[in-house]
Design brief:
mainly alpha; Hypothetical protein af1432; 63% helix
Length: 272
């Protein structure tokens, strides 16, 4: 499937066409801010989402409230907009009649992606990696899942009912995600991090050498713990990136608390 995606690109039947157009606009060197705004305004719910995010403390909202999408685009920046467009796509896909059979795993993917994104942003502050890059990588880490789930609808498949927990998809989705991000013009560091998100046996390095992949690996592990009731016990054994990031049990607990607060604020803003 990764080879198919690399050759043919993202299947437009799997994603809202507006999201495909927005990503194509980002890849075009001659896209103006007005061109981008016109594409965003074609989707009122995406426009609303960006304004909401621009007013979130998570993205450095100031005292002055952002009320229109031009201000939101200026404040958020293109990487966040690209990631938010994919989150919007997941929400849209859940509402489509032909995709109703995968609505539950799409919802779970949406929630998990936001959790990984918030945790990634917090952990990035321990490193030289930009927090917005880490956030976007976390939000897009499951793009391979999204593609596979959408392609599985209506086809004879050996996939189990629990799509997010399916072992085959778990092994396959990172490479599919890398192919999708490459096709959409995402940076190599982000694409490689998504591809290597299960590489728990990476070489241990000093914290100043920690990269986007280390952040994503740890964030996915912590996001899994976020679903558990307290007291939580993070299973960091065998995941070398915890050592590279010098994440102690106390650090993990503080990170989860902070991310939990951010997620609560986001859910209130997004009414979900």
């Amino acid at each position: 499937m990764a080879a198919e995606l690399s050759k043919d690109g993202v299947d437009p039947s799997c994603f809202p066409k507006s999201v495909i157009r927005i990503h194509a606009a980002f890849n075009a060197s001659n896209t103006s801010i007005d061109d981008l705004l016109r594409l965003i305004r074609a989707e009122p719910k995406l426009e609303e989402l960006l304004v909401v995010l621009a007013n979130a403390a998570l993205f450095g909202a100031g005292a002055k409230r952002v009320t229109e999408v031009r201000g939101a685009v200026s404040q958020l920046g293109r990487p966040i907009i690209r990631a938010a467009a994919v989150s919007f796509a997941i929400q849209r896909m859940k509402e489509e009649l032909r995709l109703r059979s995968i609505a539950a795993p799409l919802t779970e993917l949406w929630r998990t992606s936001w959790a990984v994104a918030c945790i990634s942003q917090v952990i990035a502050r321990r490193t030289k990696i930009k927090s917005e890059e880490a956030f976007c990588t976390g939000l897009l880490h499951g793009i391979g899942y999204l593609y596979i789930m959408a392609r599985s609808v209506g086809k004879s498949t050996a996939l189990g009912a629990d799509l997010l927990g399916d072992e085959l998809i778990g092994r396959t989705h990172p490479s599919v995600g890398k192919a999708a991000l490459g096709k959409w013009g995402a940076g190599k560091d982000m694409a490689n991090a998504v591809n290597d998100q299960h590489l728990h046996n990476r070489n241990v390095r000093s914290r100043d050498q920690a990269d986007l992949t280390d952040i994503l690996i740890v964030s996915i592990a912590l996001a899994a713990e976020l679903k558990e009731a307290e007291p939580r016990g993070v299973l960091s054994n065998g995941i070398n990136s915890f050592q590279t990031l010098e994440m102690t049990a106390e650090d993990c607990a503080k990170t989860l608390k902070h991310a939990e607060y951010q997620l609560g604020s986001l859910h209130r803003l997004l009414h979900c």
